[in-house]
Amino acid sequence: MERREFITLFIGVAAVWPLAARAQQPAMPVVGFMSGRSPEDSAHVAAAFRQGLADSDFIEGQTVKIEYRWANGDSDKLPALAADLVNHKVAVFVAVGGDVSAAVAAKATKTIPVVFGVGSDPVKAGLVASFRRPGGNVTGYTLWTTEAESKRLGLLRALVPGVPLIGILVNPRFPPTEQELLELEPAAKAVNQKLFVARANDDAELDAALASFVEQRVGAFLITAAPFFDTRLDRIAGFAAQKRLPAIYQFREYAIAGGLISYGPNVAESYKNAGTYVGRILKGEKPADLPVLQPTKFDFVINLKTAKALGLTVPPTLLIEAGEVIE
């Protein structure tokens, strides 16, 4: 072979080789992320989820693609969102932002691995066989938010003792609501506390529910765990401030946004753990072998600035118990 012919052949092979090498590289895995909440109120937890992925060497846009779907507090949208992600043939399906999201995802696919986030008992809900050995294609975490309602009621009463009537805001379309009321009502009865329950599943109902608190002259109110209320955080906290009503919420984000007090699990930590689980599944582990995660601590946050605006003096015992105080 002449030297000129060899050089020409070498250059041609060199030009084609990178294209062939790229063609042989595995496609970037796609993770479907479906939430019952909204992107606006979930920015911090979505970032925590991505951090969990990154800790497992999966960087969004570099080594993994994430397809986001948001219901914005409307659970009726979830089945269509789930079907869309299944049609995208995602490698892992993440279902967070409420128990309905998890149930819809588990129903939508029996083959794609699902990592869920719920607030109640996933075994009782039929999502998994057990906490230690979930079985099937589903695993995830629970926040146990629905199990903390009586604790929240006790904290609210300690902050505003002697209030004749406490309002309870619930979402009737949220499956754990019945369990929340089953926990709250006996707890209130045990201390002779009267409750007024207001129900809301959309914006019009929320306006009516909040107005009913004023009409019934509640002295304080408790917002039960529900994704719809998380997407209306600013509206609810704004109402409490305007009407000068003490209120307790489930996540610290409410207190950060101006809510009086909050008590609940560290939700960002749970989302990070979900990201870690997704990374482990992408590396070959099976959901059936990954135990359902549970919160290790609950955050109790007091916003002293809000308390001052409401004319409240926070008892020293609560200040000592609080893990975080906003001044």
Verbal overview:
With 327 residues, the protein is of the alpha/beta class. The chain folds into two domains: 30-144 and 266-297, Rossmann fold (3-Layer(aba) Sandwich), CATH 3.40.50.2300; 146-265 and 299-326, Response regulator (Rossmann fold, 3-Layer(aba) Sandwich). The protein contains 13 helices and twelve strands. It has helices at 3-24, 43-55, 78-87, 99-108, 149-159, 177-190, 203-215, 227-230, 233-242, 252-256, 267-282, 304-309, 316-321, and strands at residues 30-35, 65-70, 92-96, 114-118, 138-142, 165-170, 194-199, 220-223, 247-249, 261-265, 298-303, 324-326. The radius of gyration is 24 Å and the shape is elongated.
Rg, Å, rounded: 24 Å
CATH architecture of the largest domain: 3-Layer(aba) Sandwich
Secondary-structure element pattern, one letter each:
HEHEHEHEEHEHEHEHHEHEHEHHE
Largest sheet: 7 strands, mixed
- Count of spatially separate domains: 2
Q: What percentage of residues falls in helices of 4 or more residues?
A: 40-55%
CATH topology of the largest domain: Rossmann fold
The proportion of residues in beta strands is 15-25%
* Relevant CATH superfamily of the largest domain: Response regulator
What general form does the structure show? elongated
